[in-house]
Amino acid sequence: MVKSKVINESAYISELAIHGMQEKKGNDLVRLDLRNINSSVADYFVICHADSATQVKAIANSVEEEIYKAMQAEPWRKEGLEYGEWILLDYVDVVIHIFRTDKREFYGVEDLWGDAEIKSYKSA
């Protein structure tokens, strides 16, 4: 019973992150469902990119605001805010990656988790 509540909560956080990305026009939004992968570090990865460091930072702020408004939750850890090339927001069961376009192509996070179920979302 507790496990399904945790999964539902992580799914909800991932949907809030998608909404925050859409609000600031993130590109190529995807959610990787990692729950059925034994070695996964989280339930979901949510990924998008933007063409400038300014937009990457704006998307990260929007995602944080959406999740905080709905759940009063802060990220457990944040990385990359200084340069805005790859910002990571870690909500433990949901890890959000916001890349500058060239960095997303270079790191290929989706390729590293090729066994994940991938769902694409439209930008707003």
UniProtKB/TrEMBL annotation:
Pfam families with a match to the protein in the record: RsfS
GO biological process, one term: negative regulation of translation
Source organism per UniProt: Mucilaginibacter phyllosphaerae
Gene Ontology CC terms, in alphabetical order: cytoplasm
Keyword Thylakoid appears in the UniProt entry: no
Keyword Cytoplasm belongs to the record: yes
Keyword list, A-Z: Cytoplasm, Repressor, Translation regulation
UniProt protein name: Ribosomal silencing factor RsfS
Similarity field: Belongs to the Iojap/RsfS family.
MF-aspect GO terms: ribosomal large subunit binding
Assembly mode: Interacts with ribosomal protein uL14 (rplN).
InterPro entries referenced in this protein's UniProt entry, alphabetically: Iojap/RsfS/C7orf30, NT_sf
Residues of the signal peptide: none
Subcellular location: Cytoplasm
Described purpose of this protein according to its UniProt entry: Functions as a ribosomal silencing factor. Interacts with ribosomal protein uL14 (rplN), blocking formation of intersubunit bridge B8. Prevents association of the 30S and 50S ribosomal subunits and the formation of functional ribosomes, thus repressing translation.
UniProt main location, coarse: cytoplasm
Domain of life: Bacteria
